[in-house]
Design brief:
Elements lengths: L15 H13 L4 H15 L11 H11 L9 H8 L2
């Protein structure tokens, strides 16, 4: 996007919790939600489509993701343990 690009205002409806989480992430990069949307739109135009793969997890993967989010079936492992396991 160039410095002289014309800008327009638009309204989108977002999940409130998801918006807050995304804003916290973008803030770490020094950008706001508008900047992030503009990057997404620029990449979409360059790629002529969604600029990333969209995948729906199968039932097993979805269950594993949900369990991880809830802290279920998780085991704490140290870096030393992992190194021993791979023989490093």
């Amino acid at each position: 996007m160039t410095a002289t690009a014309e800008k327009t205002r638009t309204n989108v409806y977002l999940d409130t919790a998801m918006k807050k989480q995304a804003q916290a992430i973008f803030k770490q990069y020094g950008m706001g939600l508008s900047d992030a949307f503009n990057i997404f739109l620029s990449q979409s135009v360059m790629e002529q489509g969604i600029p990333f793969d969209i995948k729906i997890p199968n039932a097993d993967t979805a269950k594993t993701i949900q369990d991880a989010r809830e802290g279920k079936n998780m085991t704490k492992v140290s870096l030393d343990d992992l190194k021993k396991e791979i023989g490093a």
